[in-house]
Amino acid sequence: MSGFGALAQAYDGFIVDLWGVVHDGFAPYPGVLDCLARLKAAGKRVVFLSNAPRRPHGIIKMLASMGVTPDLHDGVMSSGEAVHLGLRDRTEEFATLGKRLYHLGPPRDRDVFDTLEYQQAADPAVADFVLNTGPDDDLGPHNPDLYRPALEACLKANLPMICANPDLEVMKGGERIICAGYLAQLYEADGGRVIQRGKPDAAIYQPTLAMLGTAPSRTLAVGDSLRTDISGAQAAGIDSCWVLSGIHALHPEQAPAEAAASGLNPAAILPGFAW
């Protein structure tokens, strides 16, 4: 398909990824603001579902600074929020965690835990678990080897890792950068235990659908990643639309075979999230 307009008529609600679909880390992609405005004018509901390792209020503020204002959507759910709730309620795997955490990530992601009753440890040796929100501002998002010493220290301390962003990488202004999921993959490959929240786990679609208020059969998920967005929607029993504006730099004619090779069957494939 060449545009989102015809596809939009078949659904009442849309679960839309952010990075790679709505924006590139700096600005919205061409046609996105118009597409969101047309969906709202048609009475459709839109909730953003992001693997961002922070809570929704900060994401909403960041989106508004790009022109994606609150009147264009019906809310945000994030992997950071799912981790926050897990830490707060100490449900499932979070129930056995101690109260001292080592934070691997930038200060802007502290809202995942800074209002909760946890102590931040300066050294993995005195922590109970490591909270991984991704590359920090000092070492940067390009060379994973720079994080080996911290990961090895966490392994030596036998710390379980909470990963607040399952993404391996994203495109930022045309540049490929690593995310928390990449560091978690390295940690797990070396024998570390990793607990993740976010796409492609089907569980995160439950609160997202509750926010959206539409039936799963009348809901479409829109994403740029086969591994997280399209796979997650399929696991949740929701139709999906794969857009090629993000990490998969494919010609549209190549995309169906690429999806099939991954065992995925999106309802539609588009160049981008534009009407």
Number of domains: 2
* H/E element order: HEHEHEHEEEHEEEHEHEHEHE
**Annotation, overall tally of beta strands:** 13
CATH fold title of the largest domain: Rossmann fold
Q: How much strand content do the residues show? A: 15-25%
Sum this structure up briefly.
The protein has about 280 residues and is an alpha/beta fold.
Describe the fold and architecture.
The chain has 275 residues and is an alpha/beta fold. It has two domains: 5-51 and 202-270, 3-Layer(aba) Sandwich (Rossmann fold), CATH 3.40.50.1000; 96-196, 3-Layer(aba) Sandwich (Rossmann fold). It has helices at residues 5-8, 32-41, 56-65, 79-89, 148-156, 180-189, 205-212, 226-235, 255-261, and strands at 13-16, 45-50, 76-78, 100-104, 119-120, 129-132, 161-163, 169-172, 175-178, 194-196, 219-223, 239-243, 268-270. The relative contact order is 0.18.
